[in-house]
Amino acid sequence: ELKVEQNPLFLSMQEGKNYTIYCNYSTTSDRLYWYRQDPGKSLESLFVLLSNGAVKQEGRLMASLDTKARLSTLHITAAVHDLSATYFCAVDDSGNKLVFGAGTILRVKS
Amino acid sequence: EAQVTQNPRYLITVTGKKLTVTCSQNMNHEYMSWYRQDPGLGLRQIYYSMNVEATDKGDVPEGYKVSRKEKRNFPLILESPSPNQTSLYFCASSPLGGTSSYEQYFGPGTRLTVT
To answer: What is the rounded average pLDDT for all residues in chain A?
Structure first.
């Protein structure tokens, strides 16, 4: 059974600082997704990572995938308040479903 | 505009009163799925459908039913809701096959409270 673990679950950081959210998963998969959720809102797709070594960047966020280590990271560079949200990683389990991590609540303080 | 829609967005009901949450997508996607979101648990899949008349259980199907009679619609039915089904529900859809990344697109969510 595929399990997905995110850490940290809560992250409070100062504006301008860098930090990384980790997503570990338990069985082989080569599709991993990062989503953002604002309070009371739906999930917004951030990154789709489809192969080992994949790296995607958008603004202050960069995501990478290491399928051998079963690890993805979401790196935040020079955080700004607008990045405050909950971030989920989700791993494709044989094409039939996504298995989600518990989410990381990010609060960026000015 | 390409989108997944859900109705209603908010619903308060009583134990045992049957309800249906509708989901519709206009992207001609084969795959559709229902998730529930509970604090600290992320999203968990309830049911999914790979195409018309093809549905299957996810991780937490107990107490729910679905149907897929048309490609665009995938309603979630709670025949006898109970308080432990109080949750935030999301419908999602995805293309399958070819060069698809299988990325799922989510609806706006339905917040259900069962008293």
So the answer is: 93
